[in-house]
Design a protein that fits this description.
Helix content is 27%, strand content 23%. A hairpin with a 5-residue loop joins β8 and β9 (171-175). The protein has 14 helices and 19 strands. By secondary structure, the chain is α+β, with helices and mostly antiparallel strands. Its cofactor is FAD. Residues 36-206 form the FAD-binding PCMH-type domain. Keywords: FAD, Flavoprotein, Oxidoreductase.
């Protein structure tokens, strides 16, 4: 890089600019997935949108690609890249909730924990993820699956507008009224189109919920999965519920002699009338006796952060995912074979329901195309010791290979691994060509290519 240009960048950015010559560089380049070890050319932590515009222009003028880091949860490590300019939004985490309009303005580096904390005093929330340390930006741009999606739709369905800095460093307010093509593309198209520095969300009345995790013996998993596929099809949309394989963590509500054992779990979230919560969950309770449970009335933010401790920064990560229209007997058989082999307490498999409100959006209304899918499955390999990389990655790959023939060709981009780029067209189905055309308009040189990449069409 030109020394004078770098000096000018430091002078023109209100936030911080870090390169390999700076003492804080190694800390600044570290990301959530410890399997990722990359050396970007420049890391900019902007103080405001103007800094982002300056950084993007600098990258374009100096022939650098741009990697965007929001909450930093990208499993493939797309928030960094060798020789790139990283826009690290972690210093832009402000959230402002307007209770009169029931909306929230959220900066691009905020996490779902930030948004939940701001909304809870007003009794307002929107569909977020399952882990509260996940970034609002990355989750929303990829679609946004979470506890509330059956009743409220995906995160991107609740997006009203977004401030976006595109590849030429220009500023856009994308909405249905302005830059409508850009607004369409960022609702599911990932970070392909620019840096989103602010989101405006529709919020809904959700404060306390009734729910929590239930744990069952492994030999009841088949009964529960067969029950679940029928039950969730027409369950009240206030109910979020997903099955999981999970090694029992050392929590006080789980019998001590079961700690460390693989169990089958159901995670529930009733966001309707709290007095009706127990009745709503009763059909699940009737299927099989529980080994343990932690179910009751709790703040929605408490459920959204309940699993945070299992996935701290610094783990090794490798994930695979598919959309599923029908959970067939053959698919269930594959889960029964591979799920119990879960290697460590951090790893898991979830089958998220995405029916209800999420299905009432037309497949071409947003970039998120799989509106006919009923479930989104993720096999999330997460473990602390790099020495286990080969064995634990093999568990994910073998599990995925067994379930893929019973799933749709495409999957949820937020759950994709770095080696899933060949699936990009399948992930977007008939929306891909329009996405490629929009990419050509806003990023013709593919400056933003560190993602599940859509090539300019």
């Amino acid at each position: 890089m030109d020394t004078n240009a770098l000096t000018a960048l430091r002078e023109n950015v209100r936030g911080t600019v870090t390169t390999a010559e700076d003492a804080e560089y190694d800390e600044a380049r570290r990301v959530y997935n410890a399997m990722i070890d990359r050396r970007p050319a420049v890391i900019v932590r902007p103080a405001n949108t103007g800094d982002v515009m300056t950084a993007v222009r600098f990258a374009a003028e100096n022939d650098l690609s741009v990697a965007v880091r929001g909450g930093s949860h990208s499993v493939p490590g797309f928030g960094t890249a060798d020789g790139a300019l990283v826009v690290d939004l972690s210093t832009m985490r402000g959230v402002r909730v307007d209770p009169l309009t029931q909306t929230a303005r959220v900066e691009g580096g905020a996490t779902w924990g930030d948004l939940n904390a701001a909304g809870y005093p007003f009794g307002l929330a929107t569909t977020g993820g399952i882990i509260s340390t996940t970034g609002v930006g990355g989750l929303t741009l990829g679609g946004g699956i979470g506890h509330l999606d059956r009743g409220l739709g995906l995160s991107c369905d609740n997006l009203l507008a977004a401030d976006v800095v595109t590849a030429d460093g220009s500023f856009h307010v994308a909405s249905d009224k302005e830059d409508a093509d850009l607004f369409w593309a960022i609702r599911g198209g990932g970070g392909n189109f620019g840096v989103v520095t602010s989101f405006e969300f529709r919020m809904s009345p959700v404060k306390d919920i009734y729910g929590g995790p239930m744990f069952f013996e492994l030999d009841r998993a088949g009964d529960l999965l067969r029950f679940y596929r029928e039950f969730i099809a027409d369950a009240p949309e206030e109910l979020g519920c997903f099955p999981a394989y999970q090694i029992a963590p050392p929590l006080p509500f789980i019998p001590e002699d079961r700690h460390g054992e693989p169990l089958f779990a159901m995670v529930t979230c009733w966001a309707g009338d709290l007095d009706a919560g127990e009745k709503a969950l009763q059909p699940i309770l009737d299927v099989a006796p529980r080994v343990a449970e932690h179910v009751g009335v709790m703040p929605y933010p408490a459920l959204n952060s309940a699993f945070d401790a299992l996935v701290p920064p610094g783990l090794q990560h490798y994930w695979k995912a598919n959309f599923v229209t029908e959970l067939t007997d053959d698919a269930i058989a594959a889960h029964l074979e591979h799920g119990p082999k879960i290697p460590v307490v951090n790893s898991t498999m979830h089958i998220y329901p995405i029916n209800g409100a999420a299905q009432r959006v037309a497949p071409d209304s947003t970039a998120f195309a799989y509106r006919d899918a009923t479930f989104a499955t993720v096999i999330a390999g997460m473990w602390p010791d790099p020495a286990d990389n080969d064995a634990n990655t093999a568990w994910v790959k073998d599990y995925y290979a067994a379930t893929a023939p019973h799933s749709e060709e495409g999957g949820y981009v937020n759950f994709m691994a770095e080696d899933d780029q060949s699936r990009i067209r399948a992930n977007y189905r008939g929306n891909y060509d329009r996405l490629a055309q929009t990419k050509r308009r806003y990023d013709p040189d593919n400056l933003f290519r560190h993602n599940q990449n859509i090539q300019p069409g």
